[in-house]
Amino acid sequence: MYRKNYREHDMLVKFFTAEFGPKMFFLRGARRKNYKMAADILPFSYGSYTGNIKKDLLSYIVNPIDVQHYLNISNDIYLNAYATYIMNLLDTAFDDGKTSIDWFNKLFYSLRLIDAGIDPAIITNIIELQLLSVLGVAPELRGCMVCGRSDLNLDYSESMGGLLCENHFDRDLYRLRLDKKTIFYLRKFSIIEISKIKNIKVNNQTKKELRSFFDNIYENNLGIKLKSKNFLDQINNFKI
Ligand SMILES: [Zn+2]
C-alpha cells in the first residue's frame, strides 16, 4: 500500500494482506544497494510472501514467493495516481490487522482491471461507493427511501442518505438533481462484483457528475481529504 524510509538503511512497507488485512512490515537494510528483496517490495507488487507476523509490533517479511508487478500502473503516472488513491482510501477505512478477504479481493481485482486498461476513474468510483458501507454510511440505492419504488424517476437526497422517487421529491428541496445516467451507474456500482467486470464505458459528462458526487460525500460529509486525491485532481485538470 505504501513504503516509507525508516532510520538510515531500513524501510517500513505496508501491505494489504489476505490473512491479516493492512499490515506494516519492517525491512532491515531495504535502503541499501543490492538489497536482495528490492524488486519484491516495489510499489504495485503482489504475490505470496513468508514472514513473521506480530500482533502489535512490526512484522517481518522473510521470503518473497512468486511476486509480480502491475507494470502498466507502475509506468503510467495517471494510472499510478488512481491506484495510489484507492490504496490510501483503503488505508483510511481499515485499521491495521482488520481482516477482510472480501476487500483484499476487491483491491486485487481493481488494480488488475486498471492495469489491463479498464477506465480507472470508474473503478475508483466503484471502490468509493462500496467502501461507504465499511465507513458506516452506505447509501440506500435500491429504491425510494420513502416508498421503495424504483420504477419512477429517481434522484439522490444527501440529507436522507439515499434515493427518492419523483412522488417524494418534495421530501428534500435540496435533492442533488442528478442525471438519470448518473443514478443508473450509482445503483449499478453498488451491486457490481469487481472481479466480474469485463468492460465498462461511461460518457464524460456522467463521469464528471459521478466524480463530484463522490467528492461531496468524501470531502464534505466524511471529511476525508487525501493528498493522493489532490494529486489526482491536479493530473486530471492538467489533462483537460
Ligand atoms: Zn417514493
UniProtKB/TrEMBL annotation:
Every copy of the DNA replication/recombination mediator RecO N-terminal domain together lies at 2-61
Q: GO CC annotation: what is one?
A: bacterial nucleoid
Question: What does the entry give for GO biological process?
Answer: DNA recombination; double-strand break repair
| Keyword Transferase assigned | no
- Which keywords are on file for this protein? DNA damage, DNA recombination, DNA repair
Q: Which PANTHER family match?
A: DNA REPAIR PROTEIN RECO
Q: What does this protein do?
A: Involved in DNA repair and RecF pathway recombination.
Q: What is this protein called?
A: DNA repair protein RecO
Organism (species) = Apilactobacillus ozensis DSM 23829 = JCM 17196
* Record lineage: Bacteria, Bacillati, Bacillota, Bacilli, Lactobacillales
Q: Which gene encodes it?
A: recO
